[in-house]
Design goal:
With 369 residues, the protein is α/β, with parallel strands linked by helices. It is built from eleven helices and 13 strands. The protein has a six-stranded parallel sheet, with helices on both faces. α2 packs parallel to α3. The longest helix has 15 residues.
């Protein structure tokens, strides 16, 4: 794949600026060591959105022979810095506090107040030197598959040994394969209830038992403190209640055979970003699967007559776009049906068959420069 240089884009920019005059210089042959600067505003602070946008911005950087990646975000959630540490393509981070904003933040669709921008810092830190500004709606998840060389996140090397030892101390056998498991429950701090994306914990317990007792694996549950307690099962390790453990959860996902994401939620972005195959059940939104080794079992959609709409037909008509289904529900009486326990078990069997070559802890994915 041909990569672009700063000179290529400099030429295009100058031609546009001087379109009414005769240009005699072939700017594409300009020799320069100046890097192409990509500046990304990571305004979506949800776990999934923040990870998706990190991967997108890093993948844009990989399109150039010589580039630098600058990220801007607000330090208002504990995991943001950890995710950024997992992004080896970042050259500079602009961390903002609530009372400091830049003009660029006018593009923040998640802001609950209109920012009062300041320009001094933008000027002092060479903001005007940026060649490409990435806003949230440019970094669309559905476009991730278009990258010929998509970036991956990775666990910082200096943390690997301690994190691995921590999982072993918690009871995980380092000689046997395991899956990570996640689903949404109410009670996560700062997140409103979302019945459409929440799962009955009893279904998750059934899947956990199946993996351990029938398939011979181990299960590591990730999540947040306050999730429903599981039975004490041999081969089950629960790290959802470990305080301040995002990096431990990320490490577990990166080394697992696969992530069983039993309901649509943010960790499916994490697993795909580190190269771990991901099974997303109860899928609500199309486009969130960008990794070639991952799969989705979507929720079924019933029309006003109570008949199941074929998945491909529903996708073509945009019924797996979040918000569309709510409007149709009101207008036509359409509704979603969550996956049954039997469907979850069948999908688990199929996906573990697909990933059967991984019989130990997964090896780290290769680092793409």
């Amino acid at each position: 794949m041909a990569k672009y240089s700063y000179a290529d884009f400099s030429a295009l920019r100058r031609v546009r600026l001087h379109q009414n005059v005769t240009i005699t210089t072939d700017f594409r042959r300009v020799e320069t060591d100046r890097p192409f600067i990509v500046f990304a505003g990571l305004f979506d602070r949800s776990l999934g959105g923040f990870i998706y946008h990190n991967v997108f911005a890093a993948s844009v950087k990989l399109c150039f022979e010589n580039a630098r990646l600058h990220l801007l975000f607000h330090e208002d959630r504990t995991y943001l810095n950890d995710v950024t540490l997992m992004n080896p393509y970042v050259d500079e981070v602009w961390r903002q506090t609530v009372d400091r904003t830049l003009a660029f933040e006018e593009f923040d669709p998640s802001s609950y107040r209109r920012p009062v921008p300041t320009f001094d810092e933008w000027e002092q830190r060479a903001g005007p030197e940026a060649d490409l500004l990435l806003t949230p709606w440019i970094m669309h998840t559905g476009s991730m598959r278009a990258f010929a060389n998509r970036a991956r996140l990775r666990i910082p090397e200096k943390r690997v040994s301690a994190l691995g030892s921590k999982l072993v101390d918690l009871g995980l056998d380092p000689t046997r394969w395991f899956v990570t498991l996640h689903y949404r429950e109410p009670g996560y701090e700062g997140r409103r209830p979302d019945p459409l994306r929440e799962l009955d914990p009893g279904q998750a317990i059934t899947v956990t038992r199946h993996v351990i007792e029938n398939l011979g694996g181990q299960v590591v549950r990730i999540g947040h403190p306050g999730m429903t307690l599981f039975p004490d099962l041999p081969g089950f390790v629960d790290i959802s209640a470990v305080p301040n453990c995002f990096m431990l959860q990320a490490f577990a996902v990166a080394r697992s055979r696969c992530l069983l994401q039993l309901s649509d939620s943010g960790p499916m972005a994490l697993s795909q970003a580190v190269g771990t195959p991901t099974l997303v059940c109860n899928g609500v939104v199309s486009g969130n699967i960008f990794d070639e080794n991952s799969a989705c079992l979507p929720q079924r959609i019933l029309n006003g007559d109570g008949k199941v709409i074929p998945i491909e037909s529903a996708r073509r008509h945009g019924l797996y776009i979040r918000g569309a289904i709510d409007k149709i529900l009101r207008l036509k009486g359409y509704r979603r049906i969550k996956n049954t326990t039997e469907e979850l078990l069948a999908a688990t069997d199929l996906f573990l068959e697909e990933t059967k070559l991984c019989q130990t802890w997964r090896k780290p994915s290769s680092f793409r420069r």
